[in-house]
Each structure stands twice: as structure tokens, then as C-alpha cells.
Amino acid sequence: MQHIDTAGAQWFKSSYSGQGGECVEVASNFPGLVPVRDSKNPDASLLFPADAWQSFVTAVQDGEFGTI
């Protein structure tokens, strides 16, 4: 398994996120990958292939997971 250093990640969260501190953050400055983390635990992140992340986002937007 390859280690990818996300120290240089430019994290952002959705404008839909509230002020409660329970936010998912993503970084977009990794070509072909999308790092994702929980704002409450910024030292840990998951990496997804960009096409898989886009499929997930599209499915959420299309309501395939019900109401969020």
C-alpha cells in the first residue's frame, strides 16, 4: 500500500455544513484522488479515486440515498 502525504491538502467543507463542528471536508488539489476527512478528526483522512467520489456525489444529488 502506498502512503500519500496529505499535509499540503487544501481542505474545504460544503456551504451546507452547519456551525456544529460535524463536517466532512474534502481536498481538491490531488490529481485523480479526493482526500476526505471529518473536521473533528483532521489527522485522519480517506482517499478515494476521483471518479468514484464523483459517482458518490452524483448519487447523493440524485437522491439515491434518501433524505440527508
Description:
The chain has one helix and four strands, in the order E-E-E-E-H. The model has no long low-confidence stretch (mean pLDDT 86). It is globular. 18% of the residues lie in helices and 25% in strands. By secondary structure, it is α+β, with helices and mostly antiparallel strands.
Radius of gyration equals: 13 Å
Q: Give the overall silhouette.
A: globular
Q: Main sheet, how many strands, which sense, barrel?
A: 4 strands, antiparallel
Tell me the number of strands. Answer: 4
- Going by helix content, strand content and strand pairing, the class is alpha+beta
Going across the biggest sheet, name each strand in turn.
Answer: 1-2-3-4
Q: Low-confidence spans: pLDDT under 50, at least 5 residues?
A: none
Task: Write a short abstract of this structure.
The chain is an alpha+beta fold. 18% of the residues lie in helices and 25% in strands. The mean pLDDT is 86.
Key features?
alpha+beta, four-stranded antiparallel beta sheet, 4 strands, 25% strand, globular
Question: Secondary-structure blueprint of this entry?
Answer:
Layout (H helix, E strand, L loop, with lengths): L10 E3 L10 E4 L5 E6 L7 E4 H12 L7
Antiparallel strand pairs: 1-2, 2-3, 3-4
